[in-house]
Amino acid sequence: MTQFSSCNSSHIGRINRRQFLAGAAATAAFTIVPRHVLGGPKYVAPSEKIRLAIIGCGHQGGGIGRHMGGNKMSRVVALCDVAMEDGRTKATNERFPDASKYRDFRQMFDKMGDDIDACTIGVPDHAHFPIAMLAMSQGKHVYVEKPLANTFEECELMIAAEKKYGVACQMGNQGHSGNNPMQFKTWVEAGVIKNVKRIDAFMNSGRRWHGWEIDGYPEGEPCPPGMDWDTWTGTAEMHPYSRRFDPGNWRSWYIYGNGAFGDWGPHILDTAHRFLQLGLPTEIEAVKREGPNDYIFPQASTIAFRFPARKNMPACEVTWYDGTQNPPPRPDCLEPERKLNRPGKVIYGEDLTFHGGSHGSTLRVIPESKMKELSSSLPKWPRQSSHHENFLLACRGEEKTNSPFHVSGELTQVFMLGVLAQRLGGTLKFDAKTRRITNNDVADRMLRTPPRKGWESYYRL
User: Fold this and answer.
1) CA distance linking residue 172 with residue 176, whole number of Å
2) How far apart are CA 145 and CA 152, in angstroms?
3) Is 74 within 8 Å of 97 (Cβ atoms)?
4) Cis omega (within 30 of 0) on the bond before 147?
5) What tens digit of pLDDT does each residue of 265-321 get?
6) Can you give the pTM of this predicted structure?
7) In sequence order, what are the residues at sequence separation of 6 or more whose Cβ sits closer than 8 angstroms to the Cβ of residue 60?
8) What domains sit in the chain, N to C, each tagged with a CATH number?
9) φ and ψ of 274, to 5 deg
């Protein structure tokens, strides 16, 4: 857990900021004083750069950080990765050579807490929670890759922390700042999408764990040079390093990831969940599990979520299909020559059926002849900032985040319930008021998986 290099510029920046604030306090002529000086949330004034820490510098995390750090509103002051010397972090290291570098996020916040305004968190699912909780508790704005966390309880605590600490929070389902959410919202408000009682969502591409034959955790092997495996493991139970876990394969394992649900669910079902106000389901049924396993996700699964009626909206059943040979039923109204998007969704409304893909891709009415018939009368929708820009603007208090934790956290909790059905089978009955599974004690306990010894404090922040 060693700091690889220091950055004198962070120390100089801290002195300049103190000098500036002292001058601002002495004269009312300054109008660019950061709002947090006046006692509100720690927004960054438009006259200042957002001091950004990138936590998780390889693969997806590195891509997010390089994109966010390349924005004119920000400057990268710190990089943190448990494998900082590994080749996977090379591009991020080279892009921000003057940033201070750490392997352990705790040490980074301890040494540089006063010099960081916001952070991106692009690490394995199981490690999102402790990093985000520590950052929020210190008043940092946080951008967390999807899915938000790795257990139902962790999402609950992150939602509460967002409110408690008053910071800008964004989950990284990038499509939630694209055309699809604005279209969906506009069409619901205009009555184009109405009285939806059924949604089929599907992800039928191959996954890392497909074809694996697993009957336990893998035997250990040497860590890559410089890898901090203890920090990588975080709140999860400790197992020796294995290439079956890292890099990327962690998503295959229940203790570290959320499978296809966590990977693609936030991009496929986010708009339906939000603008149809689905909330949390009362029943989750494992309709199909192909190759169920106590350690990794099934080779294929069909999971049905039953949501109760809400306000003026009817009860709705959302059915999820994953696995390369487990497609959803083909809609009768889809032309024979047309194929369903992969991944995608079919939304069955009262008068119309809609077909869509993932991320920000827009919906089409099917059949295509119906779409052409209605095209001139369908309402248009407004544009909005990109997901990364939206977060940075929220750090300055100029916008609200499009996927805040009180929205994205509940969406993630739906997937967490689905993962329990994938893992245990059968039908789970859920009470949204008590936040309990009422018919399966094992599943109910799994909503609140206890952390590894030594990591309990993050659950009390």
Assistant:
1) 9
2) 16
3) no
4) yes
5) 999 999 999 999 999 999 999 999 999 999 999 999 999 999 999 999 999 999 999
6) 0.91
7) 122, 145
8) 8-174 (3.40.50.720), 177-222+258-383+405-460 (3.30.360.10)
9) -75, -50
